[in-house]
Every structure is written in structure tokens, then in C-alpha cells.
Write a structure and sequence with these properties.
Shape of chain B: elongated
Distance between the termini of chain A: 35 Å
Structural class of chain B: mainly alpha
Structural class of chain A: alpha/beta
Largest interface: A-B, 25 and 17 residues
Number of domains of chain B: 1
Strand content of chain B: under 5%
Number of strands of chain B: 0
CATH topology of chain B: MetI-like fold
Largest sheet of chain B: none
Radius of gyration of chain A: 25 Å
Oligomer: heterodimer
Largest sheet of chain A: 6 strands, mixed
Distance between the termini of chain B: 26 Å
CATH superfamily of chain B: MetI-like
Number of helices of chain A: 17
CATH architecture of chain B: Orthogonal Bundle
């Protein structure tokens, strides 16, 4: 009896086919990765394996967990099955844990529900589970005192507490920084081997799937493919010419008030970005990347140090001078869902930076919007629709169009491609490289994807806890990392 | 159909209140002691009250003070509270603190006590009760606006608007206000029905609209001693209050679904 067998499963929502005749099985001790672009039916398949589909879904086919057809089980037995026979690890450990209870209590609850252990035995078992997922901390800690990676370990401990034969992990590493990602991947792999569980790993991270999965199953528009999705080839990067300095940070320090005293987000960071160049800023989460971004954009002032754009200092710019500086920089943000006002049409969103030009005739505004949309490969009639009507990749194109409409010199990308799946990311990278050549743009790239940095950036700045630990050409730093922290970052991405 | 019940009911109530401005079956000010406390008949479908006035006419005209006062109070609350809430969200720091603490102080008073205080100063009357209830609405809307607006300020599209050189005022109007409309509509319908109830309470205490103007709350108060002999005199205005509040709450739900379906997000 395999932990999971899915036979000829089809799921429809009204007229929309989410899954079409899917057959899939996970053997004991096997890791099966389910990959595919967003909207390919990955999440529907995972939900179907737990019989957690919304009521409006129409199902056909058989889903067996250890030989039992779960679709015929009554609700009460299904609930028992979900915790005891199938463990789940979600994408976001911050929301999967109850912030009001200690981690020991939460793991203990699973044991109390799904095992016959006595109270004293439960405490011992909780400690053993914490050790098994590689945590050496007290069971009395609260989730908010833990890092993202530690929280995900607690979530995994909860998922495996009842010794389920099947583990479902839905993008278990997507919200973590690269070092924690690699550790969680290794942990999942060793747990599966040691316990002989089946693991169904749902992800759009092909690199992760490659690294730990025994088999990779690709879903595309609800159908199973034979192979993983083909990676679109990215054109080789032509090194940009060095021009005049455009952006300059000199010994920039920024601190934020906390309950007692202040905490430093950036400490004496200096950098120089020349016209036409691409500089990547990398570092684990909390290293000060986003603060650096806001300071470079002039949205926030440093406590100490100087930030100049084209030789002008952000902190002395006022009125018309400030507007002139604003026209030279734009940004594309990480989450395409949060970067647009959901109540405005794409046309209004893309036209927003035109505010800096003062009042302009409606016809001219529309022409500029159409031009910007065309530059990113979107049809002109996109302007009348709402951003919600577009897919993730298209939304990121809208964000790029908004950044382009003023013809700025510098565009900052704050983790702008990390929410996209690999095929889309390659497309957007190609688009950005083409735009850079055509329009002579300068890019500042905040990233934690080392592959992206390698194919887009000329130079790289490594931040650790707000300090610059390395700055130099990508090739030189990446091929022979002298800094141990950078070496760890790179190793985690391998 | 289910979605239309509330709005239709509310429209009928408002229409009847407006109609009573121009026409009622009988004059509500005409006292006719000879024909007092009559049971329902062809001439008086709901009978007459203790002063011989036609109950149907009284009920129609009695709708005006609660609806008018609640609407006035709502407008005062929105006009005062929403800008305050937007300001507080746009200026974290001492401005935000000041607005929040002022709201706390107003909340420390029970609403009806605050209204009594205002009326004690200004004197009884429909307009004054509207002002009194409206004063209590201001911190309610300030708080709801501030809480929702702070969430919106943290979103990336606000950074994009700031990159476009837009200031706090423009961002508040263009981006924040439309996105807090959902919770505001919910709160507005709640405050409207609370306003109806508050007006009824003040009228019951004799502090609302003054005689000879008819008002549901005072009709209940005037007839309370007759509840055993003529229960209809208390029952009909009481029922009118309940149905109106019910209609407003149902309409609010419909409105929210129509205008801001994503408000729950």
C-alpha cells in the first residue's frame, strides 16, 4: 500500500477545468515534487489529496491514502486522517503557528489528539521531536521569538508528530531566505529517508525540486507532463560600459527606534552606481536590503552619510528640484499583488508617475501609457482593465511599464522577480536586458536569487546585518568568494 | 431577491416619511378627544390614540425625526471622523497619538450620557439630538478609518505613489479613501441603525423632537401607561423602529457586497 495513490482525478470549478485525468502515486520513502507555473493546478491537487477542496469543486476519480479511498470517508474519520495519516507543511510558518501558544504546547496538541501518549510522555516526545527537526531550543518559546527557518522547523515537527506515512509540503521554503531554504530542504530529505514517509512536495522552485526529489512531476493547465517545463534560454549578458556615476551612497547609516534604544538597519554603507550599469544587492532577510532601497529612492533619509543622484543630494532637494530628481528614478516591487491599487485601472496605474510632469492633456497621457505598455509587450487595451484580471507575469510587466513611463535613468527592482516561476522569470529577465540596451537604463537589483544576479548584474554588493561585507564584479566574487558569509549564501543556493 | 429586501423596505420607509411631509390621512396635530382610543376601522385603519389622533398618520409622520436625526448624525460622524482618521494614518507620531487619545476620551463616556450632556447644554430638539449623536459618531469613524488606512499605507502601491511625487494629502484621497470604503460602509450602516435607536431613546425621554411633531420614540413614551388597554399604541411605533433598523442592516449588507466585495480581504 502506497502512502498516496491518485487515479484519474479530474476537478472542475464550473466551466474551468483545474485538473484533467491526473494519475500520481507517492511510495514510502519517496519524494515526489509537483512543479508547474502558478495556476497549473498544483494547489488543487494538494487540496484534493486531503479532501479539502472547496464545496463548489466537482471531483471525479479516486484518491487513496494507504489504500483507503478518502473520498468515501465520513467527515469525522477524515479529520482523524488529516492529522494522523497525512501531515502538512504550509508555505508561511508565521501563519501556520498560533502566536498565543508555546511551540511545545502546539506540538503536544497534535500528540494528544492523534496518539495514546500520557501527559508526561508527551513532554518527552515533544523534546525528542524538536531535536529531530534540528532545534535545540526550549519548548516553552513562543513562535514570534523564532526566526522564519526555526518556525518552519516547528511546523514540520507538528506535521510529523503523529508519525504520518504521508507528508504534504506546499512551497515549504518559499518564504525563507536562501540559507534557511537550503537547511529546510535538507531536513525534509533526511526525515523522509529516516522515517520512510512519502513526501509530496508542491513547489515552483525547480532548483529545490532537482535537489531533493526522486521524481519530478510537472503539471501544466491541469494535465500531467512527461518532463519538467523547459527553461527558456536567457541571452548571455553583455557587460555594460562604465559611464558617469549616477547614484552614490557615502557612509550611509540608518537606525530605527525600538522599545529600548535604536537598532541599526544600515551601518556606513557606501556604493557607487554608474550610468548603464547593473548593481545587485544581496544578503539574507533582515540584512538591510530594503532600507538601502528606500534610501536610494529618496523615500527615506539616512541618519548619517550622503545619498546623491546625478550629483544632487536627496536631503537638500525641495520643490521643483526634488521633482526633477524624482523623475530620474522608479522602482518595481516584489509582490505584484500589493504593488497596485486594486481599485484603479491599469491605465491609471501606469500613468501615475506622470503626476511629476504636472497637468498634461488626456490624449498625450493615453499615448504615453500605450507606448509604455507596448514596450513591455502588453496590448493597448490592457489600460481599461483592472490589475486583478492579469496573471503574475503580466502584472510584473504592468509594474515595469509604470516604472518606464517617465523614461527614468535608474530603476530599482526590490525582489521583483522572486514571486515568478522559472519560465516567466526568464521571460522578464530577457525583457529587462532588452530595455536596458534600448533605453540605456541603470538597474539596482535587490535580490536573493543568485542565478538572477549572475545573469543580470555587473557588480554585486553583499550586505550582512547592515554592513557591506563585499563589493565587486559578480564573476570575481561568485567564482572565488573570499568572504565566508558570501560563500555560505552561495552554497545555500547550489 | 434576498438582496433586494433590505433596500426595498428602506426605500418604502423613507418614501412614506417624505410623503408625510405633503400628505397624511389626517392632520397629526388635530386633537379629537371625542374619538380617542378607537379600535381600527375603515376611517382609521390603525385606530386612534389617547388624544384621538389617527395612528396611521402619526406613524407616517413619526418616521421623520428618527430618519432625519440618524442621517444628520451619520453625516457629522463621516465629515468629522474620516478626515481625522486619514490624517492620523498619514502622520504616524504625535498627530496619530493625539487623534487616538482624543477618541479614547470620547469613548470613555457612555454614548447616551454624552448625548444627554450635549442636550443639557443646547436644550432639547431634533437638530440638537442629531448633533449629540453625531458627536459620538466622530471617534467611531476616526478609529475605523485609521485602522484600515494604516494597513493600506503599508502596501507597495503607496511606495509607488510616493515615487510619483505624490504627497500625503493626495495619496490619502486617491489611494487610501477608495480602499477603506468597504469597512466605512459597514460602519456607516451600523451607526445609522444605532442613530435610529439613539433618537428613539432621546425622544422617549422627551429630549428629541418636541410636540406637536410626532416621533416614534415619544409615541411609545406617551402611550406606556395604556399598554394594557390599548397595546397597539406602544406596539406599532415600537415595531416601526425594529423594522427600520432591520431594513438598514440588510441594506448595508447588500451595499457592501455591491460596492466593496473585497472589503473582507
Amino acid at each position: 500500500m502506497k502512502p498516496l495513490e491518485i487515479e484519474h482525478l479530474s476537478v472542475r470549478y464550473g466551466e474551468t477545468v483545474a485538473l484533467d485525468d491526473v494519475c500520481l502515486s507517492v511510495a514510502a520513502g519517496e519524494i515526489v515534487a509537483l512543479v508547474g507555473p502558478s495556476g497549473s493546478g498544483k494547489s488543487t491537487l494538494a487540496a484534493a489529496a486531503m479532501d479539502l477542496l472547496p464545496v463548489e469543486a466537482i471531483e471525479q476519480g479516486v484518491v487513496r491514502v494507504e489504500g483507503t479511498d478518502i473520498r468515501t470517508l465520513p467527515e469525522k474519520q477524515l479529520r482523524a486522517l488529516r492529522g494522523a495519516r497525512v501531515g502538512i507543511v504550509f508555505q508561511e510558518p508565521a501563519t501556520a503557528l498560533n502566536p498565543a501558544l508555546t511551540i511545545g504546547r502546539q506540538i503536544g496538541e497534535v500528540l494528544a489528539l492523534h496518539s495514546d501518549l500520557k501527559r508526561a510522555e508527551i513532554a518527552a516526545e515533544v523534546d525528542r521531536l524538536l531535536a529531530e527537526v534540528g532545534l535545540t531550543l526550549s519548548a516553552k518559546r513562543f513562535p514570534h521569538t523564532l526566526s522564519g527557518g526555526q518556525r518552519q522547523r516547528v511546523a514540520i515537527a507538528m506535521a510529523i508528530a503523529a508519525r504520518p506515512p504521508l507528508l504534504l509540503a506546499d512551497e515549504p521554503t518559499a518564504s525563507l531566505d536562501p540559507v534557511a531554504q537550503a537547511e529546510i530542504a535538507r531536513l525534509l530529505q533526511s526525515l523522509v529517508r529516516r522515517r520512510g514517509m512519502g513526501l509530496l512536495l508542491v513547489t515552483h522552485d525547480l532548483a529545490l525540486a532537482d535537489r531533493i526529489a526522486d521524481r519530478i512531476v510537472a503539471l501544466d493547465q491541469g494535465r500531467l507532463g512527461e518532463h519538467g517545463p523547459e527553461r527558456t534560454d536567457v541571452p548571455p549578458r553583455v557587460p555594460s560600459g562604465r559611464g558617469e556615476p549616477l547614484l552614490m551612497l557615502e557612509r550611509v547609516t540608518r537606525t530605527y527606534p525600538i522599545r529600548r534604544g535604536r537598532v541599526a538597519a544600515l551601518t556606513e554603507v557606501s556604493l557607487l552606481l554608474a550610468h548603464g550599469e547593473t548593481l545587485a544587492v544581496i544578503g539574507a532577510s533582515g540584512s538591510g536590503k530594503s532600507t538601502l532601497a528606500r534610501i536610494a529612492l529618496g523615500l527615506e533619509a539616512p541618519d548619517d552619510g550622503r545619498v546623491t543622484l546625478g550629483g544632487r543630494d536627496w536631503s537638500f532637494a525641495r520643490g521643483a528640484g526634488l521633482r526633477a530628481m524624482r523623475r530620474r528614478v522608479q522602482a518595481v516591487f516584489q509582490d505584484p499583488a500589493a504593488s497596485f491599487d486594486p481599485r484603479q485601472t491599469v491605465g491609471r496605474i501606469v500613468a501615475e508617475p506622470l503626476h511629476l510632469l504636472g497637468p498634461i492633456p488626456a490624449a498625450e497621457r493615453e499615448a504615453k501609457v500605450a507606448e509604455a505598455l507596448a514596450q513591455v509587450g502588453l496590448p493597448a487595451d490592457a489600460a481599461q482593465r483592472l490589475p486583478q484580471a492579469f496573471s503574475g507575469g503580466q502584472r510584473q510587466r504592468i509594474a515595469i511599464a509604470r516604472a518606464l513611463i517617465l523614461r527614468p535613468e535608474l530603476i530599482l527592482f526590490d525582489e521583483a522577480l522572486s514571486a515568478l516561476d522559472p519560465a516567466l522569470r526568464a521571460e522578464i529577465i530577457a525583457l529587462l536586458l532588452r530595455l536596458q540596451t534600448e533605453l540605456g537604463l541603470t538597474y539596482l537589483l535587490i535580490a536573493h536569487d543568485m542565478d538572477l544576479v549572475r545573469c543580470m548584474a555587473d557588480r554585486v554588493l553583499v550586505l550582512r546585518e547592515g554592513r557591506a561585507v563585499a563589493l565587486g564584479p559578480v564573476r570575481q566574487l561568485f567564482d572565488r568568494p573570499t568572504d565566508p558569509y558570501l560563500a555560505a549564501l552561495l552554497a545555500s543556493a547550489e | 431577491m434576498k438582496r433586494r429586501v433590505g433596500p426595498i423596505l428602506l426605500c418604502v420607509i423613507v418614501a412614506v416619511a417624505l410623503l408625510s411631509l405633503a400628505w397624511t390621512p389626517f392632520d397629526v396635530a388635530a386633537i379629537d378627544i371625542v374619538h380617542r382610543l378607537q379600535p381600527p376601522s375603515a376611517g382609521h385603519p390603525l385606530g386612534t390614540d389617547q388624544l384621538g389622533r389617527d395612528m396611521l398618520s402619526m406613524l407616517m409622520a413619526g418616521a421623520r425625526p428618527p430618519l432625519g436625526v440618524a442621517a444628520l448624525a451619520l453625516i457629522i460622524g463621516l465629515a468629522g471622523g474620516v478626515p481625522l482618521g486619514l490624517l492620523a494614518a498619514a502622520r504616524p507620531g504625535w498627530v496619530d497619538e493625539l487623534v487616538a487619545r482624543c477618541c479614547d476620551i470620547l469613548f470613555a463616556f457612555p454614548a447616551i450620557l454624552l448625548a444627554l450632556l450635549v442636550i443639557a447644554v443646547l436644550g432639547p430638539g431634533a437638530i440638537h439630538s442629531g448633533l449629540a449623536i453625531g458627536l459620538f459618531n466622530v471617534p467611531v469613524f476616526a478609529r475605523v478609518t485609521r485602522a484600515s488606512a494604516r494597513g493600506i499605507w503599508a502596501r507597495d502601491f503607496i511606495l509607488a505613489a510616493r515615487l510619483a511625487g505624490k504627497g500625503r494629502v493626495l495619496i490619502s484621497i486617491e489611494h487610501i479613501l477608495p480602499n477603506v470604503a468597504g469597512p466605512l460602509i459597514t460602519q456607516a450602516t451600523l451607526q445609522l441603525s444605532l442613530g435610529i435607536l439613539a433618537e428613539a431613546s432621546l425622544s422617549f425621554l422627551g429630549l428629541g423632537a418636541q410636540p406637536p411633531v410626532a416621533s416614534w420614540g415619544r409615541m411609545v413614551a406617551d402611550a406606556q401607561t395604556l399598554i394594557a388597554s390599548a397595546p397597539g399604541l406602544v406596539l406599532f411605533p415600537g415595531l416601526a423602529i425594529v423594522v427600520t433598523v432591520f431594513a438598514i442592516n440588510l441594506s448595508g449588507e447588500t451595499l457592501r457586497e455591491r460596492i466593496a466585495p473585497e472589503a473582507g480581504l
